[in-house]
Amino acid sequence: MITFLRRLVLLFLLGLLPAVSVNAAEVSYSILHSFQGAERYPEASLTSDGRGNLYGTTAYGGSWDFGTIFAVRTDGTEFRRLHTFAGGSGDGGYSYAPLIFDGAGTLYGTTTRGGSSDAGTVFRINVDGGGFQVLHMFGGGPGDGANPYASLTLDGTGVLHGTTVGGGPSNGGTVFKLRTDGSGFRLLHAFAGGASDGRSPRASLLLDESGNLYGTTNYGGQPAVYNAFGDIIDGAGTVFRIKTDGTGFRLLRAFTIDLTDVAPAPDGQYPSGALTSDGSGNLFGMTIGGGEAGGGTVFKIGTDGSSFRILHLFAGNDGWHPVGSLVLDRAGNLYGMTADGGTGNQATIFKVKTDATEYQVLRTFVDAPDGKGPTGSLILDGPGTLYGTMAYGGSSSSGTVFRISTGGNLFQVLYAFAGFSNDGGRPWASLIPDGSGYLYGTTAFGGFSYEGIVFRIRSDGTGFRLLHAFSGGLDDGAEPRASLLLDRAGNLYGTTTRGGLSDRGIAFKLRKDGTSFQLIHTFIGGASDGARPLSGLILDGADNLYGTTSEGGLSDLGTVFRMKTDGTGFQLLHEFTVNATGGAPPFASLVLDGSGNLYGTTLYGGSGLHGTIFKLRSDGTGFLVLHSFTDRADDGKWPSAPLIVDGVGNLYGTTSSGGSSGLGGTVFTLRADGTGFHVLHSFTGDRSDGGGPTGVIRDAFGNLYGTTNSGGPSQAGTIYTLRTDGTAYQVLHSFGDEPGDGRNPVASLFFDGSGTLVGTTLGGGVGGTGTVFALSIGGRRTVVMPGPFVPVRRR
After folding, report:
1. Which of 117, 179, 231, 717 has the fewest CB atoms within 10 Å, i.e. is most exposed?
2. How far apart are the C-alpha atoms of 237 and 453, rounded to whole Å?
3. Cα–Cα distance between 254 and 697 in angstroms, integer?
């Protein structure tokens, strides 16, 4: 008999786990609050008062570490602590349940512990934090419940209904009710488990207009047996119905366990959260386990127990083990969360239609700054924004409050560098993809000797691996600041600004799995060599590498060089001199066109004294200055980023300063013969615009994309787009506006092939030492035109 685990392994090995449709262009996610330790681990859903305020609880934190009640605005401002639980006989402790709002300024909730018997409480509190009152202290035993984990349900007559996990004659939990002033407490049902009853309800109740309560239990539903450890096994949970007066109890569905096989039940096991109703006789819910792969289910059932149907089976990449309750919008979309699964295997937010179509993962959590460990449910406001909490993660690993919408762009931090010995820090360079889902890059800091690293990471943010840690010795480099180059044979090439024999930088080569590291050139400066390369290498079709150095040569103002991929045949193609007309020094990588011409920039010099664009043949002949920057309003100054060239002879680039604002920088274009120079955009560097642009990339639709290292609301830089004719300029993302975000990008972007921009920031993230990020710019498939490092001649 093939077990469930064997089945899952077979599915994985055969590649038969279902694919998931993700339309990231419809998602916008942001952190509203990161808990700092005074409040810790918000494990319950949020509650909205409909006036822009969210209310919630934390399970821990506060003066006595029994948890808190808090409020925060829907834009993340005005965070307030309303109450600190003290535990003991006079207060509750450890609130895992959402609050409910009566519409008149009062919140009601439960705590799992505290009270006179330490078995939990029911409480109320005003939205301003005043009027806190314990309405009921649970005592357990045959006549009372114990340990409520669920929120309350309020009817139109001022009666609260709820559940407890324990208590009652069989200690299987209860359904209870009491008035909002604490009077009239009564047990409506005591669960006994077994074939005809449920056991251990952990979710809130759903009330319809006819006075019926609907709920779920975690266990019960089939005859009880005991396992070898003495634990009772009496089913995998139930869906039940009961009247508000305690009559008419009925099991609508019993989820079971096949004791002869470890394979999960196909209809789900162990219900998660409360039920949701569409008002037309249908209930919707989830199970934590079960389904064909064991990852849980989304199900639908009629209010009379008929028409049971599975809407979705979770299998891993689409989520695993759903938690909390579903939320339903007016268009028939259900939203929920899973505790595991997705590409990051930490949590997902998903969406599915009530007819089982259009399943979509809206967000996969892959990094602690986002938060992790969802235990509550989402809530939905009128404009289409979902709000939720994560119990862990955030800037202090104490949880987060977040929001996510189904319209807008998705920005996601893929990796935050910590700068430690086993990690990198300060990524100056652009990333490069290998076509199989991995990105490769460098950091100028971190590693075992804190001299920088070469790393790889999957395009979903997982699988980070340090490939090489630089030592700065005679046979190694230090402080790489340039992008890597990947050839067809799987070799990575790069440069460092320091290290080697003269500590003036090296060129290196290694396999993309990190093996076979080789120093292929040591820069020593002087008349016959370059020094301090700040740029990456490019490759032609004849195995020649080309690059620039910022120092070295006759005047120590930088060089253009070439060599073979094994380091032989090193040759200086051009040495920049004190002649101002030629410009110096070059900081950026070169670009090669299909006719064997190299194009590059110098930061200073030229007839305008503010940098140049130059051209030369790949054999070093024909050096020509195409443009000298002048710092006029219709020009820029100090170009420091690589150029790009399109298929019809147009060059595009940026200057780090200058333009109409004087300091913000520009995006420009010109022909490959030096004619047609035109500023496409002048940056202002203020809150509404970026400043100090890095390099640009171009898609096949005539759009340019780039980053700026300053400007925006937080002066932390931006991501922007504009057309190649200078129209349709738009800021797509402003860095530093939320915890965990990056700051100050200094490298160019690239497309990952699915319409997503990927890049790095020099600062920000958890450790403050930089991030890898991704930004979806639309649902269409994007065709990418050549970028800064393009081999164009093939053998």
Report:
1. 231
2. 51
3. 57
